[in-house]
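Structure, all two chains, one model.
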Amino acid sequence: MRWGVILLLTSLFFLISLRSKMESEKLEFVIPDNFPKSVYDFGNNPLTEEGFQLGRNLFYDPILSRDSTISCASCHLQFTGFAHVDHEVSHGIDGRKGTRNVPALINLAWNKFFHWDGGVNNLEVQGINPVTHPKEMDNTLEEVIFRLKNSNKYQQLFTAAYGDDEVSTSRIFKAITQFVVSLVSSNSKYDQIMRKEQGINFTAQEQNGYKLFKKQCASCHTEPLFTNDFFASNGLSLDSNFLDYGRYGITQNSEDKYLFKIPTLRNIEYTYPYMHDGRFSTLKEVLNFYNGLNHDLEYLSKTLKKPMKMTDNEIKDLLSFLLTLTDKTFLFDQRFLYPK
Amino acid sequence: MVYAGEEILSKEKITIEGDNWIAFNKIKFYVGNFNFTQKASSVGNYQNTYYLIDQSDSSTLEMKFELLSPADSICFLIGTDSVSNVSGLYDGALDPLNGMYWAWNSGYINTKIEGISSIVKSPDKKFEYHIGGYLPPNTTSSQICLTPKSQQLNFQIDLSKVILSDLLIESPSITIPGEKSSLFANSFKNAITLIEP
């Protein structure tokens, strides 16, 4: 009799431990119909609901910064395409200012390079920058790990995501990656038209703008991601504050002077101010700048050498097309909000 | 680890060239991708396994490998390979927590050597070499292949072959990838020699 009871208990115990290991819910990373294959390798970071939620909590939590005042979301606001509206350059801890405009976090799964200079080569390691940069969160990895280890909330979230509450650099930033890699914008008016969804059409003005876009902009801001994920020198003069040569700072190759990463134009309506140093506050200024480029600049990228010569009306048409890249589904997606 | 034949002890001054001296407070570097072969077939392949050697931590100075049979050739990397530098996060020796990782220009610092020397012209006399970079032509890791004569291999690094007076005067600080880093890495590799047990 006794032996039988023990056996029964043992088998029950096995059942329970089996269940707790199966807890995390696999998520599929869905590639929109009109998008190419993504770049990010999920092989060592399988997407799960619990991993995503851990990343989402970390993204919105100022615990990551030295004095617990700043979170990722302080500069990356969902309603503005995860960019920082009205801030020319990033604002960090103690009111310190960075040197570059906060990039929008949109469709990062398709990017090979991150930051305006492309210095970061993998989404997983990007987060280390804002957390440890003295002008952003000014924290250390050791301190972040210590705080998360001692937090009941995170003990639970890490256990849900990884099966136990061990906190490590890779676990923290892979979880944040799960959240930011999920920030996919693919339901703008443009996308609906490309997918031939019923009853959705460009207006005559947008249609003409699209034609102009393909002629003037698409070689760098390539559809459907609206970036070719490469670098270009767009003719901006060197900013007098920061003397920022962009890509050159990473490669030390003089041919890379003035090169900056080509940003996506998705949700561009909301990600102002524009350019790597945020020097233009409206899209109109940006288009006027390109239209009036000084083509004698020696460092201008080849694709911009040919004058655009757009009329005022054409600029308005192009602008109206760019507004079709706004994706309200993305900007107001409940899954990307501050976690409850 | 020696400097011109003299054993390097953390923070202790070593006399060089008359009245001048040098002292090291940090010497750390990566080795990895060990592959042991016998007649060209592998008897122990430790691909993608890295070790962070830290002069101040004696437990890191010895590595043991289990082999299927004795090896007639050993190849390994001084530094980290390009795949490790672009593939995101790792645990263990490659955890960015070890202070051997650049966040702003993603990639590992393959070798970190810091100290002070009377030869350095700045008032604080400090020198620092954070050597890394995986993009050609300025790569900073290199493979060493050798034939073992016994089951135990002892290596010696003579930093006087890397950190010369000229370097301390002209470039007391190299902390970004580039040509200088690449040259440094090459002389670092050449400073490593196999010594008889």
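The first helix of chain A runs from residue 2 to 21.
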